[in-house]
Specification:
The structure holds two protein chains of two kinds.
Chain A lengths: L2 H17 L9 H12 L2 H14 L14 H18 L5 H42 L3 H50 L1 H19 L3 H18 L1
Chain B lengths: L1 H11 L13 H15 L3 H11 L10 H16 L6 H40 L4 H28 L2 H9 L4 H48 L2 H18 L1
Helix pairs in contact in B: 1-2, 2-3, 2-4, 4-5, 4-6, 5-6, 5-8, 8-9
Classes of the chains: A mainly alpha, B mainly alpha.
């Protein structure tokens, strides 16, 4: 099967998993990256790319009423772009490819975020229609309409990745080839900096929640251990 | 019996298919109860009245909503069998449990369990171990499926009697797990600093700590996605310039 098509199918299925209330958490970037990696024959690269996207949102907590950033679709886009671009360039310019994949993944997250703001407003029309069917006694039709919401979620993930990944791979590889040797050394360290974003969110989460003692304990134990280990 | 449960159980997993800004999961709530709803009504008029009550506003944590659905189904069944249960009482139990279990569920799953599981997963994955995602999925889904399936069946068996006990006893371990989550986060932060220091020296780790501080402060002012984008782009520019 074509790699882009496989990625899109997985993307559709995992978007459905995230947006319906299945909630097995397979759509979290660290899991979806591994799944995409397994499907594309590069599990370690998938895990790594998924990890990098995941750590940026590690301490993010979804508060009720807050608009949810579309982390899963961004994570999938980022992982797929990283795996496919690395494959095309034979593993060269890893740092640049990672940087561009994460950047595009973030933009896809923003796109999903915007699109679902519109969908949640429009979904009321679907619900209202289903309610009308129920009052008319057309119960099966109302149920089907409710389940049809799943088709939208699947189609969103599928189409988004089907459009973004082929174009994105071309873009990432073209930029990596042009600027990779110039950026190479500098951008390589992005993999060590990105986890600090998640660490910042975690610090915020646990300092607000009065768990500073346990956070500090974990930090000190690990740091001292590494200090003695050298 | 099993078949009857399955008819409702699979629907629980699609509660939010038509999640919207006005009735939230109202239609999903109706969809779960629908297979049995006709048997609660004496005639078409009563059926419409029951349907109308259960397709309105419903906003609860989707995982713990299973308890509420089980309890409401039990109460409606008993009412249909002739027990004195006012409609007002059913609606009140539904709305009170929605509010209380949403607060409990959101806190336990969103603030304690998911960050704990993901932090452990990321620590393992930083050292290229596949165990991390597996541990996360097992830990999360143990509680998730227990609440989804076990919660529904328990609510169905015990009815409104479950409500008070549930609110008092559910997730008593959240204090311990919350401590573990904070501890794991501390471990993660220390590892991130150690790794940055060993790769890029003092300068890289200081920039990293600056990134942490920026995220910490930005989160107070703007949404998480914009905060991450700004810090990520600023970091890239810094790395390219230095």
């Amino acid at each position: 099967m074509n790699a882009y098509f496989a990625v899109s199918l997985i993307g559709g299925a995992l978007t459905l998993e995230y947006r319906s209330s299945l909630r097995f958490m397979l759509s979290q970037p660290i899991c979806s990256g591994l799944i995409l990696g397994l499907a594309l024959g590069a599990p370690s690269e998938g895990l790594f790319a998924g990890l990098m996207f995941q750590v940026m949102f590690l301490g993010y907590v979804h508060l009720r009423g807050e608009r949810i950033p579309d982390i899963p679709i961004g994570g999938m886009a980022s992982s797929a772009l990283y795996i496919l671009s690395m494959r095309r360039l034979g593993g060269a310019f890893g740092g640049t490819i990672l940087f561009l994949s994460l950047l595009l993944g973030l933009l896809v997250s923003l796109g999903g975020y915007g699109l679902y703001r519109i969908w949640e407003r429009k979904a009321w029309d679907v619900s209202a229609l289903a309610m009308r069917y129920i009052m008319e006694g057309r119960f099966r039709l109302a149920s089907r309409l409710h389940m049809a919401g799943l088709l939208f979620h699947f189609a969103f993930g599928f189409v988004m990745l089907l459009v973004v990944i082929p174009v994105g791979v071309e873009f990432v590889t073209a930029v990596a080839v042009r600027a990779g040797s110039e950026w190479g050394g500098a951008v390589d360290s992005i993999r060590y900096i990105v986890p600090f974003i998640g660490a910042g969110l975690l610090v915020r989460l646990y300092f607000v929640r009065d768990r500073a003692f346990w956070f500090g304990a974990g930090f000190l134990v690990t740091y001292v251990l590494f200090l003695f280990k050298g | 019996m099993l078949r009857s449960h399955l008819r409702h159980l699979w629907r629980l997993f699609f509660l939010q298919s038509t999640h919207n800004e006005r009735t939230f999961d109202g239609l999903g709530f109706f969809h779960v109860l629908a297979p049995e709803m006709r048997s609660w009504a004496a005639d078409e008029k009563e059926f419409k009245e029951i349907a109308n009550r259960h397709m309105g506003y419903f906003n609860a944590n989707p995982i713990l909503a299973s308890y509420i659905l089980g309890i409401v189904q039990n109460m409606e069944r008993r009412r249909a069998e002739g027990l004195e249960l006012s409609l007002d009482r059913i609606d009140r139990v539904k709305s009170i449990l929605s509010a209380v279990l949403t607060a409990k569920g959101d806190y336990f799953f969103e603030i304690v369990l998911i960050p704990l599981g993901l932090t452990i997963a990321c620590i393992f994955a930083m050292y290229s171990s596949y165990f991390g995602p597996v541990i996360f999925l097992v830990l999360y889904n143990y509680y998730h499926l227990q609440a989804r399936i076990g919660g529904y069946l328990m609510g169905l068996r015990m009815g409104e009697g479950l409500g008070r006990e549930l609110v008092e006893h559910i997730y008593k371990e959240q204090g311990v797990l919350g401590g573990c989550a904070a501890f794991a986060s501390g471990v993660f932060t220390a590892l991130v600093i150690v790794r940055a220091n060993s790769f890029g020296g003092f300068r890289l780790s200081i920039w990293g700590v600056g990134v942490m501080a920026a995220v910490f402060l930005l989160r107070r002012r703007i949404s998480v996605i914009w905060g991450v984008v700004i810090v990520f782009v600023a970091t890239a520019i810094y790395l390219l310039l230095v």
